[in-house]
Write a structure and sequence with these properties.
mainly alpha, 434 Repressor (Amino-terminal Domain)
């Protein structure tokens, strides 16, 4: 299973700057940027951070994640 964070997409759709998100959440802009850019693995993001971000972005916490599946093929398979 793959997990992708969708904070940047939602933030931009709502026309909220990274600076504003920092001000409203109290989370440092560098941390937010690293989360948005995938530099922080999903399991290394604090649940409390995601709750605060969801609240500020006025969305459910589930909307901040996209899941998918990674297919791994065996040797010799195409």
């Amino acid at each position: 299973m793959t997990i992708r964070i969708t904070i940047k997409k939602i933030r931009e759709e709502k026309h909220i700057s990274l600076r504003k998100l920092e001000e409203e959440t109290g989370i440092e802009r560098k941390r937010l940027a690293d989360i948005e850019d995938g530099k922080v693995e999903a399991d290394k993001i604090l649940f409390a951070e995601m709750i605060i971000i969801a609240e500020v972005l006025d969305c459910s916490i589930l909307e901040l994640y996209e899941t998918g599946y990674l297919e791994i093929k065996g040797i010799g398979e195409i």
